């Protein structure tokens, strides 16, 4: 180890320096003005690389490597590239800085310790359902109001989902758990992490008193790398290009609707799937374009990926060479001349999706090849056809309507009857020991909230499944087929509280 003391009287700086091995076998140290030097002397008279100290044959030597102002050792000029031995008490003058050699000893050996190898989860550790705690490991600022949050599981798992699906994210705000659905922006081809891309949500301009996005804004303002959140219930949703991948896709999105489209496009890119994609996205301006660099790279590298971006507002002083204006019939024909041969996926605000859907219908597009996704927070339009899902009962419970319209008396015997219960509809909350008379306008979730009973919920439109509750008996009807309720769920006695309405007396485990 070489201990030096530096003194610069002009700058009134006094420092102690220790030069030792920072890696195994180091025997040379650089002195200079460059910040990468082993000993940095920030003085204009010092060259960027001024000299070296070399340890050889149990002796430290100083070498001037060709400095501009030269070096003095004990008052004598040091010739360029002349190796001069150093001893305790020697004084080096480099520009305005004096270096006093305080102590000399052999360098302390440094043993090489290999970096720990990350332990990857085994292939059988898969996450397909159930709650999961995850740690935020990276946050990417996509635009001024959009961030991507990347998560790994604790303990680690392989994330298994379909590209285009979403997850229910649970965070705690003001001491209360809150759940919201977010589309997954990463691809299942990269299973060691899962990402969601979130836009900050402001109050609508025409409704300044309306509350802004609670969870989205909380994630932007509070979530940091290292923080933990929960994913509830596993990946969910039918908005995906799998398992039957079409040979031609037209992905149409606006705003945050780009998120599931990126997941599907990344999957096609990583899997080298034989699928031709036209990626049409509408952004407010060029500054609001999420994933711009990645999309341009995909378009440059993938011959089967065709990118088309249109902006609805041009910024002064910013050149834009792409399309402008809203998506129209002429734009669809321009970017996808073979439109009628493609499967179309649409995601974005409700008004945007309705406009695209109406446009495609007017173009005689085969709507069986059309899918859309949205978490707009609006209840589905009530249709004239009611969907009634009977609840399976346990053998010791009351008679309920089965799917074929017959009655089951609880002992396994069927009675031919298609008449439903004539009693007034009501909901009995078993755990809370409360019972409330229902009406045609209030869902099970709304009735629970009226009684102060907490049922987890997120989208409130029957899309995410966060409000699934176990029903012990009774019938539940829906104004439209519940998207987040599978046949397996129905057989297990689950109902969607946010869009489910009691037909008779329904007993809920809540």
TrEMBL record:
Domain FAD-binding FR-type: 129-242
InterPro entries per record: 2Fe-2S_ferredoxin-like_sf, 2Fe-2S_ferredoxin-type, 2Fe2S_fd_BS, Beta-grasp_dom_sf, Cbr1-like_FAD-bd_dom, FAD-bd_FR_type, FHA_dom, Flavoprot_Pyr_Nucl_cyt_Rdtase
Gene3D superfamilies (UniProt xref): 2.60.200.20, 3.10.20.30, Nucleotide-binding domain of ferredoxin-NADP reductase (FNR) module, Translation factors
Domain 2Fe-2S ferredoxin-type positions: 425-510
Keywords (A to Z) from UniProt: 2Fe-2S, FAD, Flavoprotein, Iron, Iron-sulfur, Metal-binding, Oxidoreductase
Pfam families the record matches: FAD_binding_6 (PF00970), Fer2 (PF00111), FHA (PF00498), NAD_binding_1 (PF00175)
UniProt-listed SMART domains: FHA
PROSITE patterns in the record: 2FE2S_FER_1 (PS00197), 2FE2S_FER_2 (PS51085), FAD_FR (PS51384), FHA_DOMAIN (PS50006)
Cofactor(s) required, per the database record: FAD
Molecular functions (GO terms): 2 iron, 2 sulfur cluster binding; metal ion binding; oxidoreductase activity
All copies of domain FHA, residue ranges: 29-78
The organism's place on the tree of life at top rank: Bacteria
Matches recorded under SUPFAM superfamilies: 2Fe-2S ferredoxin-like, Ferredoxin reductase-like, C-terminal NADP-linked domain, Riboflavin synthase domain-like, SMAD/FHA domain
Stated name of the protein: Ferredoxin--NADP reductase
């Amino acid at each position: 180890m070489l201990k030096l003391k530096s003194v610069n009287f002009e700058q009134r700086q006094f420092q102690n320096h220790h030069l030792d091995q920072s890696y195994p076998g180091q025997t040379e140290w650089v002195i200079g003005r460059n910040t990468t030097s082993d000993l940095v002397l920030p003085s204009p008279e010092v060259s960027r690389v001024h000299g070296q100290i070399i340890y050889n044959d149990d002796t430290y030597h100083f070498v001037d490597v060709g400095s501009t102002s030269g070096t003095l050792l004990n008052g004598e000029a040091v010739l360029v590239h002349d190796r001069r031995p150093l001893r305790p008490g020697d004084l080096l003058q480099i520009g305005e800085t004096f270096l006093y050699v305080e102590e000399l000893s052999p360098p302390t050996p440094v043993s090489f310790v290999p970096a720990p190898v990350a332990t990857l989860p085994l292939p059988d550790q898969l996450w397909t359902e159930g709650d999961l705690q995850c740690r935020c490991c990276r946050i990417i600022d996509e635009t001024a109001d959009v961030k991507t949050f990347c998560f790994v599981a604790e303990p680690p798992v392989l994330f298994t989902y379909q590209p285009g699906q979403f997850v229910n994210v649970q965070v705690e705000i003001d001491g209360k758990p809150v759940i919201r659905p977010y589309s997954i922006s990463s691809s299942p081809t990269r299973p060691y992490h899962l990402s969601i891309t979130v836009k900050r949500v402001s109050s609508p301009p025409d409704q300044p008193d309306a509350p802004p996005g609670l969870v989205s804004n909380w994630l932007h303002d509070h979530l940091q790398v290292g923080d933990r959140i929960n994913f509830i219930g596993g990946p969910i949703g039918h908005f995906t290009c799998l398992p039957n991948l079409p040979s031609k896709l037209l992905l149409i999105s606006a705003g945050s609707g780009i998120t599931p489209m990126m997941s599907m496009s990344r999957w096609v890119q990583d899997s080298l799937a034989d699928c031709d994609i036209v990626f049409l996205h509408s952004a407010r301006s060029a500054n609001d374009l999420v994933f711009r660099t990645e999309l341009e790279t995909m378009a440059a590298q993938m011959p089967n990926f065709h990118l088309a971006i249109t902006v609805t507002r041009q910024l002064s002083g910013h050149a834009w060479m792409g399309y402008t204006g809203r998506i129209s019939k002429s734009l669809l024909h321009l970017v996808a001349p073979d439109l009628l041969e493609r499967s179309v996926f649409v995601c974005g605000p409700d008004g945007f999706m309705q406009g695209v859907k109406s446009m495609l219908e007017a173009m005689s597009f085969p709507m069986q090849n059309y899918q859309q996704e949205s978490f707009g927070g609006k209840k589905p339009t009530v249709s004239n056809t009611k969907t009634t899902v009977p609840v399976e009962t346990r053998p010791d419970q009351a008679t309920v309507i089965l799917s074929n319209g017959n009655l089951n008396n609880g002992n396994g015997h069927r009675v031919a009857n298609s008449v439903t219960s004539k009693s007034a509809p009501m909901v009995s909350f078993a755990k809370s020991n409360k019972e409330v008379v229902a009406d045609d306008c209030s869902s099970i979730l709304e009735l629970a909230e009226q009684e102060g009973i907490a049922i987890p919920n997120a989208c409130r439109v029957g899309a995410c499944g966060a409000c699934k509750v176990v029903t012990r008996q009774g019938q539940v009807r829906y104004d439209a087929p519940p998207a987040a309720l599978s046949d397996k769920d129905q057989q297990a006695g689950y109902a969607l509280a946010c869009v489910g309405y009691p037909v008779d007396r329904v007993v809920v485990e809540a």
